[in-house]
Amino acid sequence: MTRCLPTFFLASAGQAALKAYDKVSKVSAERERYRTDRDSYRTKWRTSEQQIKDTEAEVERLEKELADAKAAAAKAETKKLKEEEREKLRQADAKGYEAGIKRATLEYTQVAHKMVNDELEVRLPDFFKLGYAAGADAMAGVMIIQPESGFLRQFPKPIIPDLELPYTEKECAPLPLEEDEGEDMAEASEVEKPADGEKEDRATEAEGQQEVAATENL
């Protein structure tokens, strides 16, 4: 009986030692797992921080690109508006220039019409008389009559028909003044009025001096 006791205690101590070893092994394994998880979490944390920094940098880059795109769009829109405004001004200038050319052409045309009418009014009767005389001379030549015989003097004087001018009075009438020209002429007339008044004053003064001189002579 006494011999079995040490064996029992040894077996119990061995089992206790095995249990303690297993517990220590489990604790060590758990600690190692915790350490590994901690390192993994740290790595993930660092990675996430880097990703956040990269994302923030990407956001800044995109915001800068967006601002640049907006500025470029605004600049392009401003340039387009300026070009449209410049084109409108160019078209307005072209229309005004074309209208001025048309008006000048019409004015010159009407002046030319009047010159033609005036020239015909002066010259056409003479041309008619010359033609009449030439016809009379030709008739005398055919009839073998000497111009000195007085035969040609027996012809009646030529009757000049009513002259039909090629252009009407409306086609020769001057164009109505434009607003700017009318204002300029009105201003010019207002400026000339005092000059006319000065002339009248001078004439009155001269008449007064003449009357005084005549009175003194008497």
TrEMBL record:
Compositionally biased residues, Basic and acidic residues: 190-205
Entry keywords, A to Z: Coiled coil
Coiled-coil residues: 45-95
Region (Disordered): 172-218
Annotated Acidic residues bias: 177-189
Name of this chain's protein: Uncharacterized protein
Organism in which the protein naturally occurs: Rhododendron griersonianum
